[in-house]
Amino acid sequence: MKSKGLLSILTFSEKRKDILFLLEEKPCTLSDIKDYFNVSSPEISPRIKEMLACNLIAKTDKNYQITPIGRAIITHFRPFLEIIETIENNESFWEDHYLGDIPQKMLDDLRDLKDCKVLSGSIENIYESHKIFTENISRSSHLKGVSSIFIPTYPDFVVGMAERNVPTSLILTEKVFNKVRDEHRDKLEFYLKSPNTELFVVDDVKIAFVVTDVFFSMSLFFNPEAYDPRDDLVGYDPSALKWGSDLFDHYKEMSTKITSI
């Protein structure tokens, strides 16, 4: 069968795809497959015949099982489906925002954010959004973050973490750093002298996020000139935390460490 026919077998039918995933786990009889999907033979048999003809599955005695070709295809097919699902889960977030400062290597692993949700801080619930953020921070034992925006309440917030000896590593853009230095010098000096803090400065980037051992939260710009203060992409699973930590490391390599002012 031509490759475009094989591609259609997997992409144009949820049932065929799901059968392949099921047989990846273990061989099944026709009754097993029918029971799993709660369907009748006339509904499932044509799908099975198509997959047999494509050498995606094979029949041995009464059992259907995935073939080596089927297993090779699904190894590459699953990441494709996962990144599609990741984008579709929060489609407007990815479509409406500027992604130019997320490195391609991180976008290639975007499926790690599959279980993240967009928390929208409308005027009606902006305080609720902030409450969730601070609650997540209060449960965290360390924090890393990148900020290209200045929020007036954050200097006090960060100083409070330093007072509690929470390991904190921050990367600020040069403009944000200069504003903090000029308007909150005492707080900045306290932060820099604290034993469990780090501060770095990076050239202008259009992204803001924090990652801790509890959660990852990222906000973006609509375009390089307009920050979106309402929508945060938030995740709690290990893959999202690792993605956020890797993104932080990317910016850390581009940054200059600040030890005094």
Describe this structure in words.
- This protein is α+β, with helices and mostly antiparallel strands and 261 residues long.
- Helix content is 51%, strand content 21%.
- The model has no long low-confidence stretch (mean pLDDT 90).
- It is elongated, with a radius of gyration of 24 Å.
- Arithmetic mean pLDDT: 90
* Fraction of residues in helix: 40-55%
Number of helices: 12
H/E series:
HHEHHEEHHHEHEHEHHEEEEEHE
**What's the shape?**
elongated
Query: Main sheet, how many strands, which sense, barrel?
Result: 9 strands, mixed
Given as residue ranges, the uncertain stretches (5+ residues, pLDDT < 50) are none
Give the C-alpha Rg. 24 Å
Tally of DSSP β-strands: 12
Beta-strand fraction estimate: 15-25%
Structural class determined from secondary elements = alpha+beta
What separation lies between the terminal Cα atoms? 68 Å
Concise structural overview:
By secondary structure, the protein is α+β, with helices and mostly antiparallel strands. The protein has helices at 3-11, 14-25, 30-37, 41-53, 68-89, 91-96, 104-107, 126-138, 154-163, 174-183, 185-193, 238-253, and strands at 28-29, 57-60, 63-66, 117-120, 143-147, 168-173, 197-202, 207-212, 216-223, 226-227, 231-235, 256-257.
